[in-house]
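Researcher: Go.
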Amino acid sequence: MRRVVSLYLPTWPTDRIRRRKGAPPHGEPLVTVKTEGSRRLVASVDHAAHELGLHPGQTIAHAQALVPNLHIVDATPEEDEASLTELARWCIGYSPIVAPNPPDGVWIDIAGADHLHGGEKELLTKLVRRIRDQKIGADACVADAPGTAWAVVRYGKEIVIPPGRSIEAVANLPVPALRVPPATVEALHRLGIERIGQLAAMPRAPLVRRFGKEVALRLDQAFGHVFEPLNPLVPTEMPAQRVTFVEPIGRLEDLQSVVKRLADRLCRDLERASLGVRRLDLVFERIDRRSTALRVGTAKATREAGHLAKLFHERLQTVDPGFGIEAAMLIASKAEPLSERQIEANGLTEGDTADVDLSRLVDRLSARLGPKRVYRLAPVESRVPERSMKRVPPLSPAIGVVWPENLPRPTRLLDPPEPVTAMALLPDHPPRFFVWRRVQHRVVRADGPERITGEWWKSERERASLRDYYRVENEQGARFWLFRDAPAAQGGRWWLHGLFA
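Model: Structure:
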């Protein structure tokens, strides 16, 4: 299913000027000016100027009368568009299908790539945050159709439009959200039509006769009824291989064969350039001008064609060929230097002289489960159990911190700990039984207590923190890690924090 992001940059011309010149300071009104005949008009305004009542189309004389300390710079739409294209090239880091949407936006088709960022909402949050960190105003919305996302990000409030909800998302938006000329908007307003839903309720034939086919087309695009193609950027400096078919293909076996062929060609190019792949994009072009993209990543640089092709095999089943695929492209959207190395000499193979290479296994697991679900736990210098480890990439090097060998810890830690009901015969003794998740466990063996205090240097609350841990075993041989968060005399409660294998 297609999922398109509309990235909206409302103050792109003025933000670009500030980034290039370093002035004027943020908070001081800035506008760009264009010349139409003998008149000088405002072309774009920044946030401060907009707050003071300025807007594009005003004469400069009127604008200066309203804001005497106004900063004015000549508009350069060609440079704005070129810079927007460069920003679109940067957005390829989020998806292989990216297209500029001048003068103030970028299209990004994230279907097949959002899982690498934790989902659609997480992807949008990261994208917008990184752009705003560069002092560029930005908002984004994702929907099934480009027209829906464009309308909602500029005139609505939602950031993720669920699949199949395009009509509901745009029905209450104003008519300008349809991307129709201002003259058409004024004509619709004279008829009392202010919202898209009102326009959609009109009979189609009179609508087309009076306002032309463009209004009907834009309405269908906003509702997602008509396919709107994108012209994705393909940076020439990225290693890529493309193949066009004499007859459209669609069978899974054919797709797998094509991917293997493209991977072989691409890896030969990478070998000549001494490069290895870290991120690989596969784009299928259908005969109806729809594009489907898949993205995979690798744990370390590689150019082994068979391994790279296998990373796509399971996900190829999700590709909808429609009426047929007429072309395919494989792009190394992220590559790193990879020099040659000797793997066999005098009968000694790589396995005899080097550590086991787990990168292939990591790549396959990441492609199947998602990159965030493949990790390893690294030690952290903390006695508090839930802080004594952190998730790191599976192939990240050791940092020199190790857990004490004589410190027994459960194989599974519950975070947060779960409350249990327990009964001990004497204070500061292990419990005789406890109830966890409505199941009673009778304790037959126990060891403890192990007292762990809070890290007093972190906060005042930590200074008073205290836990007494016990390792206990029930009648069935299952072992648990329990703790009491205060001495029995102070009414401490019992918690289950871990399970031993």
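Model: The first helix runs from residue 12 to 21.
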